[in-house]
Amino acid sequence: MAMDQKVGRELFDEVMVPCYSPMQIVPVKGRGARVWDQDDREYVDFAGGIAVSCLGHCHPVMVDALKTQADKLWHLSNVMTNEPALRLAKKLTELTFAEKVFFANSGGEANEAALKLARRYAVDKFGPEKSEIISFKQGFHGRTFFTVTVGGQAAYSDGFGPKPGDVTHMVYNELETLAEHMSDRTCAVMMEPLQGEGGIISPTPEFIQGVRELCDKHNALLIFDEVQTGNGRTGDFFAYEGLGVTPDILSTAKSLGGGFPIGAMLTTTELAKHLKVGTHGSTYGGNPLACAVAEAVIDEISKPEVLEGVKQREQWFRDGLAKINAKYPIFAEVRGKGLLLGAALNEEWQGRARDILVAAGEEGLMVLVAGANVVRFTPSLVIDKADIDEGLARLERAIAKLYQ
To answer: Quick one: 324 and 286 in the same domain?
Structure first.
């Protein structure tokens, strides 16, 4: 197939595995918070590739980092290390509680590493019977067989044969039932410090604090899945900082590379020593291209003015959504923190989040859903006010049409 031959959406049905059902539009270029399709139609991007494009599309610091590294070194095996990986790891340890970093290519892989570390630590330190992993209903931790089993949505994990064992799902924000259930057999509790896919559910301060205390009481490790909440998304560099609760292990991906695939597991020296040589690995983990881009991304994101700006933008979104809702009351509440926001539909509009996504697309706006009843917004963290205003105007037009 010639490089310049036009490839359309129909080719997807011909050559791709049908586990996705993409929209009809095929984007071909992006700049900042705007995207253009094959017909040169322009869209405002409030989706950010599901909380990934944290600096928007083709941000100069990312483009420069990639181009510079592209002329130097693309890949090494883990028989050697490389400068971008070392610099990025050093910065992540300086910016967080962590002292040690493991690099992977995705959130699922970072979570896989986190779970394997937790299990290995428990075996080494307490013996094989300390193996229970507790996670939460509606939680999402990736698509590998282990992480999808730990995730709390049966629709994603059922139908693939016997699952990895000793995984228990509890109810998010229900401290009492968790306290009753936990024991010294519990190896780890894995949770999102703000549930993303499950509907943009924030933890109560009592709950998050209580989980930490229960983990300490039972010698269980607390794993925060910050794949979606991390790298400035909530207005803190990582969400745990804003909650005043420090995990033992943290996973991150999505925004970390700003669009370049990279994931990382962060932990302490004490825990890290249990993944000794040969216990875990990743061919591409710590790839110089990915690490060079991620370094540029976190240099930008961790600036105090960028993090402050996230909080400012959250307010612009909340004000704008409140205005739309005053005219067309369809939302019960706006949930979430920073630029991980979910507009939950009211009684009359249950099950219609996807209708809004489609209608918005027709108006030239890209949004997301988090379940059938929540419209999700995860735009660039540096999106400017004009783009927010334009996007909200398009959203209002979409809602007005549905409302009639």
So the answer is: no
